[in-house]
Amino acid sequence: MASLEGLKFSKDHEWVKTEGNINTIGITDFAQSELGDIVFVELPEVGDDITAGQPFGSVESVKTVSELYAPISGKVVEVNSDLEDSPEFVNESPYENAWMVKVEASNEDEFNELMDQAQYDEMTNA
User: Which CDD domains match (predicted)?
Assistant: First the structure.
């Protein structure tokens, strides 16, 4: 598994890695394992604004369709187009190949309000 150092996590099972004002967002290993085999990923367009706590896309598995909730607010500056043809990356590599969007944060304080690894582990093991 990838190093999760520096990642923050939302209660909705998204992870965020920040580099300057650019934040990379994906779903956690826990989330993908709960969903099962991912068969489709719907993501926003570059230039779209996303709002913390609001849906910004969805993932479809053989079991269900789940909305993706933005852990932070901002403008989408890059979308992982590889997921269009290879949604299985979400199951195989949730922290490396399956990042979903990169967002220019509009409120950097939102990142600090997310859970660290220990807090997320506590939530998912409860």
Answer: GCS_H (cd06848)
